[in-house]
Amino acid sequence: MSTPIASRSLAQNSAVGRSRAGRSSRSSSWAVDVGLLDADGALLGNPVHYRDGAHEAGVAAVHAEVGPEELYAVNGLQHLPFNTVFQLAAARGTVRFAAARRMLLIPDLLAHWLTGTVGAEITNASTTGLLDATSRQWAGELADRLGIPRGLLPPLRKPGERLGELTAEVLGETGLPGPVPLTAVGSHDTASAVVGAPAADDRFAYLSCGTWSLVGVELEKPVFGEAGRTAGFTNELGVDGTVRYLRNVMGLWLLQESLRSWGSPDLGALLAAAADVPAFTTVVDPDDPRFLPPGDMPARIAEVCAETGQEPSRNRATVVRCILDSLALAYRRTVRRAAELSGREIGVVHLVGGGARNELLCQLTADACGLPVLAGPVEAAALGNALVQARAAGVVTGGLPALRGLLRSTQEVRRYTPSGSDAEIGRAARRAGLED
Asked: 349 - beta bridge partners?
């Protein structure tokens, strides 16, 4: 959901996205995290961030009732220990859970405070683990088996639907003249980012590159099966009835946490130095679970290098090059597996999001994938969001091809052509455990 204003009442209600460790996120539309409301519609405590380790207690509880294979056959989701279904299972037995009458994902919670309406936008609802990926409805029987009351699950709504108008209270606090409508968009930021990928046809892979990297293809129907499940692929819903068949890769989180550990040095200088480091000096699997929590990322990378018989990185530039080489190799594996599992031919990779600014990463990704990379727009999520709103308002018309055509004619996109030795890239991938 989106709106150009942020109300004081929202800030008074909750520091949304704050974890138990006191860290906060500036995003308003990430996935999986929820607020629980009581019978009066009041928030029962701040939402707990997905990186909080307490959620993992829910994994065993869920799998004791519904095995991983059966769960995947319903929701089609990559196993991540913080998916909403595990968060709720971990919360069972608490006073807060007992008092809850509705759960709202973060963007839906914001929309509730702004308009008073209650609902779940479907692209984000598809990340909870409680949505049937085939019927596109809540999986009520699954919820029953897991002890999650069906009443917690709000009505579903689609991108482009009008949610309501800003309440009189919000209008009064902001000084905006009413009425001000609120429109549903792809409220999972990746759903909006994929709309914002300026693809010319369906022969593309997308790489939404930020703290997480979401790598996959856009399909008409979900893809189930044991091969996809064990490979970590997920079927999340997209705008206009599409399916985002993708895999989550740890992403630039590794670089962000390294910079934080080093006291936020100049990134441009580090990237320039990293470009001079020989390729594949050290490589790791970015999806190693040890890299998920906040902490001393360079030390963890050094630990993994030592375990795999590689000399730990000696300086910051080498650590940065290790991260970028490793991400490029992870993207290579994911793009190839997405094509294989979905049957979709891929001719180009559209890299959107903040990572599009990282020229070294873009070139390394082209080299590793052996495909041209079209980098940009950086603000693909915001543009995809705006285009869905504009279409709902009648300002623009057409389906996704028409919306993406507007982006191709207005946005700057940089092309990176692959180079390098595929044999050398393959050897590095095997060393990192990133070759199937």
From this structure: 205, 373
Structure confidence by residue, pLDDT tens digits, 78-107: 998 899 999 999 999 899 999 999 999 999
Judged against a pLDDT cut of 80, whether residue 1 lies above it is answered with no
Residue 334 and residue 340: Cα distance in Å, rounded? Answer: 10
Structure tokens at 233: 């692929």
User: Catalytic: which of 52, 108, 132, 189?
Assistant: 189
Q: Which two tokens stand for residue 299?
A: 């030390």
Q: What's the pLDDT score for residue 6?
A: 30
- Which positions ≥6 away from 82 have C-beta within 8 Å? 32, 50, 51, 52, 55, 56
- Burial label for 153, CB within 10 Å (0-12, 13-18, 19+), is buried
What distance in Å separates the CA atoms of residue 27 and residue 418, rounded to the nearest whole number?
Answer: 33
Of 238, 193, 160, the closest CA to residue 411 belongs to 193
Among residues 362, 82, 78, which one has the least CA distance to residue 247? 78
Question: Is the separation of the CB atoms in 404 and 175 below 8 Å?
Answer: no
pLDDT on residue 29: 64
CA dist., res. 19 & res. 17, Å (int): 6
**In whole numbers, what is the pLDDT of the chain averaged over residues?**
91
Q: DSSP state, 356? A: G
CB 100 within 8 A of CB 44: yes
Positive or negative: CA dihedral 106, 109, 113, 114: positive
Identify the pLDDT of residue 193.
Answer: 96
189 flagged as catalytic: yes
407/374 Cα distance (integer angstroms): 13
- DSSP element (H, E) containing 324: helix 316-342
> Residue 14 — very low, low, confident or very high, per pLDDT cuts 50/70/90?
very low
Instruction: Give tens-digit pLDDT for 304-330.
Output: 999 999 998 879 999 999 999 999 999
pLDDT for 361-372, tens place per residue? 999 999 999 999
Report the first-to-last Cα separation within the chain, whole angstroms: 38
Q: Which among 169, 235, 247, 240 is positioned nearest to 207, based on CA atoms?
A: 247
The two tokens of residue 144 are: 């029953």
CA dihedral 152, 191, 8, 37 (to 10 degrees): 10
Q: Which residues have CB under 8 Å from 30's CB, separation 6+?
A: 17, 50, 106, 188, 189
CA-CA-CA-CA torsion for 62, 63, 67, 69, nearest 10 degrees? 80
Q: What is the mean pLDDT of residues 121-131?
A: 97
Global pTM reads 0.90
